Here is the input.
Amino acid sequence: MSELSVGSLSGLAANSYVIDVASGSQLTQPGMVLQVVQGTSTTTTTTTSSTYEDTNLTATITPTSATSKILIIATGTVGKTNVIGQGVYLRLFRGDTATGTGLSGDPWVTNEEFVEDTFSRVPATLMYLDSPATTSATTYTVGIKITGGGITGQFRYSQHMVLMEIAG
Here is the structure.
């Protein structure tokens, strides 16, 4: 591949703000959003498992460059039966590999001190900037598990995941 370096670039005098780019080509700069993909799910995932289960919230993106980063934003509502000191963990996965962490390197965890009723729910948002280093189709999912026995966890209502390819 050839590289052209210039000190400055400007359009023609008549349209000094316009720079023509050949068909099929594009100008990019680091940090520029190259594409956006959305996934949604209205499936309720209920679990009593202490290992991660798929929540059915999934989105797939095919990066245009191996140097691109993928910004993942996932939202939904998470809940659990009221057992004080127990909680529900959510984690992002790239394929089968866990990616992104919360505090102290742990997966994101919901507030363990829910209000006292039979089933409490709180909004949950996961956000992570991933570097998949590939141009192959890449699938991201949200997993859910509980932190201990005796509770039921849920990820429910309308859940959304947005993937943004960011130029590297």
Observations:
- The longest strand covers residues 153-166.
